[in-house]
Amino acid sequence: MTQPPQPTPTNTPRQDISELVRNQLQRLLEIQNFQGAKALLAPVQPVDIADAIAGLPDPLQAIAFRLLSKDESIEVYEYLDSDIQQSLLAEFRQQDFLDIVNQMSPDDRVQLFEELPAKVVRRLLQQLSPEEREATAMLLGYRPGTAGRRMTPEYVGLREDMTVAEALDRIRSNAQDVETIYTLYVTNRDRRLQGILSLRELVVAQPEERIGDLMTRDVVFVQTDTDQEEVAQLLQRYDFLAIPVVDSEQRLVGIVTVDDVLDILEQETTEDIYKLGGLEASEDSYFRSSLFKIARQRVTWLLVLLLTNTGTTAVIRSQEEVLEKVVALAAFIPLLIDTGGNVGAQSSTVVIRGLSTEASQMQRISRIVGREGVTGTLLGTMLGVIVTLWAYVMQRDWGVAFSVGVSLFMISILASVAGASLPLLFRSLKLDPALMSAPFITTAVDVLGVLIYLLTARWILGI
Amino acid sequence: MTQPPQPTPTNTPRQDISELVRNQLQRLLEIQNFQGAKALLAPVQPVDIADAIAGLPDPLQAIAFRLLSKDESIEVYEYLDSDIQQSLLAEFRQQDFLDIVNQMSPDDRVQLFEELPAKVVRRLLQQLSPEEREATAMLLGYRPGTAGRRMTPEYVGLREDMTVAEALDRIRSNAQDVETIYTLYVTNRDRRLQGILSLRELVVAQPEERIGDLMTRDVVFVQTDTDQEEVAQLLQRYDFLAIPVVDSEQRLVGIVTVDDVLDILEQETTEDIYKLGGLEASEDSYFRSSLFKIARQRVTWLLVLLLTNTGTTAVIRSQEEVLEKVVALAAFIPLLIDTGGNVGAQSSTVVIRGLSTEASQMQRISRIVGREGVTGTLLGTMLGVIVTLWAYVMQRDWGVAFSVGVSLFMISILASVAGASLPLLFRSLKLDPALMSAPFITTAVDVLGVLIYLLTARWILGI
User: Fold this and answer.
1) Domain spans of chain B, in order of start
2) Based on CB atoms within 10 Å of each CB, which residue in A207, B21, B201, B279 is the most buried?
3) Are the Cβ atoms of B237 and A331 closer than 8 angstroms?
């Protein structure tokens, strides 16, 4: 008698589970125990199977993939990274593979096609079934990063004059082919969107009620050229499971579902975080890019910053006689510019993050510069006092100590105001506020910071 | 004859729409045209109504809120910020308000209660209906930031021996009270989780089929004490609409739905980005915190960095005679340490982001340090050559120019290796890798960077 499997109380994190699966799978494949491998994978989620296959040595990947049932292999294939998708494509006999590609969701298929050479895409397109070919060609016609490119045309469409019972019948017969049956779209004869309805509303309604009486007519929708980040923000704001996409003539052409939005958000977060670190987000995976390419991408930003930094060198050279007279002043330059940079980084981080999450509240954002200025004054006072005392302990010279402390006070105010206002300025110039991130603020503040320091020292020490 | 409303082709961004609604609403309320205001709000989404109300002057907020129907007011109330929720609570007659609180989702109610004074929470709890009180008290018993605190106990529970028709009946009668009907949970008499089933699978099944034969027995679930970030990552990984939460005895106690996960991800992203900017994410809203509190929160990190930076001052002081002999060297200190900091920031950003998104691929991550070291060497070569030439142009002294260039080459390698390896080291010590973010890497690299520079100059210039 078999015991019904219970959810096992486990404290093993999921990533370790997929590591365990991978190790066992590799052992079973190496001793050619294919039945054992099949049994091992049976209860495993498709995304975990994809991870396990990705971790296998190359020659075993295709063998493991062949063990999967048809339905499973399509799901697993959709989760694989595009480099492994491509190498499996090369391993498989044409026909096996075509069946898989033909049955992928159109949106996942488009993501694969984006990575393949144009020649391969053209050949594959010709061999798809006519309707899949049409759907794929349509999506490929939209710009990457737009709603049109991320959507799937596979939704449930209803008509206003249907009854609830008729709608449920249509859902039943379409359920296998569509991305979601939980949000239903009502269109007219011209495919124009008339309203939406959730399966929840349908399930609780009486069988004879008319769809037109149940549906919501005020629909939040996006255009095919809407940026994917805006699509994600709308879906998040309204707690939708999917959002409809219409073309320039207001015809419903597809939907973007919440699972795609989660992927979009991860991608956009990486882009934002990279910009804050002075990096461009790359289309390519980190490990597949050559190091020369990575270095070339990074060096652009570094050179821009280096150029800005030449201002600092010029300022110091112009005030060189101050340092010649009191060389002890040089010892505090790194401390001052680093602290200024850190204060500026804090302010710009708050503003940049605020701009990307609370876009609807611009009236509040103008108050931020004032608040950051006051915060910078408070921070400058605290840090200035501490640094003055500490510099005196090190140097035993009140002149130098006050020069350092007073400069740090002024630099903190400058840094927090610049950190808060430069991203806002960029935003109002329709540029990306994230370009005014920590590395740039730091470098920009340094030029003025060094000038403030040396002029203050000149004044206090009477040079 | 009324024209059926069509989705209007609009290019107005949604945030401007809610701004328009707010302005019109305020005008209508000021002339006391309440019918007009109701008509204005009728087609507006609850979250947009909440935004419009939040933007009204205080005395009008309660008036606008009273215009809403009962059902609508509950939904709108759930979307309001907790400070406005609290001020409405004060304005309302006790009973009106209790009805709303009693009908909120337990998870949203707990989020409100977290912000209210303990005394008010105790009074409100006593006045809730017994079952809502029990649900709320249970959720409040879990630590903030865990699955237990974010879940809702309102799900559809089925039994293995039910037929599909019986299950659909149960769903119909529960649909109004539960958070989602799209994922269904099968439990036994002890409330232990036996399997899950989607409404999609149910809808396409035959009415007489047994639930036990249809359900999936391999369930991905979390414990009540699982961190909310892990909950979000699991739901995202498996493309679920909800994830079940079990207690220490494996009994199903609630579910976390995808709309909550979107909120969790936004909150966690803000935390990550703040750490990268040398900030602690605050529980309180930026605008409701006093500036003294904000300054106090920020100054801690700044002082830690300042303390690290005293190392730079000590290094320069110990090598002061080098600067005394060739004061021109001082002019390049900011450029060297800023560029080093920028190179280090790029590496640490890549590694920290990698650790938070690709946790399952630790085997790859160990390769990163090597790759970053090579990238740093390439960047150091490019930047070193450029800076040497540029320093010669400025200073007309090959000795100084080579000192700057050779130091920048070494500092770039040091910065990229430190930027990549310190977050990994922190991770392996079970500390948060994001603490080793740009501000800290910059400061740490500066101490060694200045030492490298002055020793290199001493050697090249023969001081």
Assistant:
1) 14-142, 157-256, 291-460
2) B279
3) no
Q: What is the pLDDT of residue B58?
A: 83
Question: Residue B332 and residue A313: Cβ atoms within 8 Å?
Answer: yes
List B242's β-bridge partners, or say none. B257
- On the 0-12 / 13-18 / 19+ scale of CB atoms within 10 A, A375 is buried
pLDDT band at A13 (very low <50, low <70, confident <90, very high): low
Quick one: average pLDDT of B87-112? 79
User: What pLDDT shows up at residue B12?
Assistant: 47
Identify the closest residue of chain A to B341 by CA–CA distance. Answer: A439
CATH class of A157-276: alpha beta
Q: Which CATH architecture is the domain B14-142 placed in?
A: Alpha Horseshoe (1.25)
Superfamily for domain range A291-461: SLC41 divalent cation transporters, integral membrane domain (1.10.357.20)
Q: Write down the pLDDT at residue A283.
A: 60
Distance to chain A for B207, nearest Cα, Å: 12
ipTM score assigned to the predicted complex: 0.80
Using an 8 Å CB-CB cutoff, list chain B residues near A49: none
Closest partner residue to B192 (CB to CB) among A6, A238, A349 is A6
* A359 interfacial to chain B (CB closer than 8 Å): yes
What does the pLDDT look like over A232-270, one tens digit per residue?
989 988 889 999 999 988 899 999 999 999 989 988 888
Q: Rounded to 5 degrees, what are φ and ψ at A183?
A: -120, 135
- What is the homologous superfamily of the domain A16-142 according to CATH? MgtE N-terminal domain-like (1.25.60.10)
Q: Mean pLDDT over residues B30-37, rounded?
A: 89
Mean pLDDT of B32-48: 88
Select the residue of B241, B305, B323 nearest A241 (Cβ to Cβ).
Answer: B241
Q: Is A393 helix (H, G, I), strand (E, B) or coil?
A: helix
Name the residue facing B349 among A51, A279, A390 (closest C-beta).
A279
- Residue B283: pLDDT band with limits 50, 70, 90: low
Contacts B45 to A, Cβ<8 Å: 218, 220, 238
Q: What is the per-residue pLDDT across B4-13, written as a single tens digit (0 to 9) for each?
A: 444 443 444 5
Between CA A308 and CA A439 the distance in angstroms is 11
Indicate yes or no: CB of A346 within 8 angstroms of CB of B317.
Answer: no
Of A309, A342, A363, the CB nearest to B339: A309
Residue-wise pLDDT tens digits, B365-385: 667 888 889 999 999 999 999
Contacts 24+ apart (CB under 8 A), B84-87: B84/B53, B84/B54, B85/B112, B85/B115, B86/B115, B86/B116, B87/B58, B87/B61, B87/B62
Q: Which residues, numbered 252 to 281 in chain B, qualify as contacts with chain A under a Cβ-Cβ cut-off of 8 Å?
A: 258-259, 261-263, 265-266, 269-270, 272-274, 276-279
Q: Which CATH superfamily is domain B291-460 in?
A: SLC41 divalent cation transporters, integral membrane domain (1.10.357.20)
Place of tokens 């006051």: A374
Q: Is the pLDDT at A5 greater than 70, yes or no?
A: no
Q: What pLDDT score does A176 carry?
A: 82
Q: What does the alpha-carbon distance between residue A431 and residue B209 come to, in Å, rounded to a whole number?
A: 59
- Give residue A299's Cα distance to chain centre: 23
Q: How confident is the model at residue B227, as a pLDDT?
A: 92
Lowest mean pLDDT among A40-44, B14-18, B54-58: B14-18
> φ and ψ at B56, to 5 degrees?
-75, 155
Class of domain B157-256: alpha beta
